[in-house]
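lol ok so funny story. i was supposed to be doing the assay writeup but got distracted and ended up predicting the structure for this chain instead. priorities right. anyway since i did it might as well share w the group, maybe its usefull for someone
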Amino acid sequence: MKKQPKKILICEDHQIVIDGLLSIFKNQPDYKVIGYVVDGNNVESTLKLNKPDALLLDLNLPNKDGVSILKETKLLFPEIKIIILTMYNQESIIKKVKQYGADGFLLKNCSSTDLLSALDSVFESAKFYKGKGVKNHVEETDGFLEKIKLTRREKEIISELMEGLSVPQIAENLFISAHTVETHKKNIFKKLDIHNSIDLVKLVNEKKLLP
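and the output, tada:
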């Protein structure tokens, strides 16, 4: 069976950049651009309608900034891969988008090879992809993973929650009761000192809680 190409949505308000991206993907069998959005307010509705596999996201869009779009998208559609495509090569920005769940970071002067490598990487690995020329920042090592000691079952449930699944769905997938899932979920939130799914997504990506 022929493999279906991954669906890409472009969030960018400069037509020359959009045209360049469309040209790159024109003859790529593994990826297909299903559209582009130029207004930040239209991203969520477009995601619901088109269900892309990945988002190429500019940080500067009219009416809603890219960081806000990133946070909301990772909460509503955690399975969508998001690669930031920007002119801003600043350590503070790179760190912030990584904390909010971005899967990769590219500069707008990157090559087509770097762009395609980024997409290949985020679909094959959970590792944050940084394009050529993107500044490095020193990773904080605070012994967090050693302190919290997540169990195998807790990691399984966190993984399911990151997929946006409900408690009944998780119970069915893991062959346990909904009550057990709910108990694990409460324990996880208490152990991680968080209160909602937004905090969970941010913490999992920031601390690399899952392999």
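The first helix runs from residue 15 to 25. The chain has two domains: 6-130, 144-207.
back to the writeup now i swear
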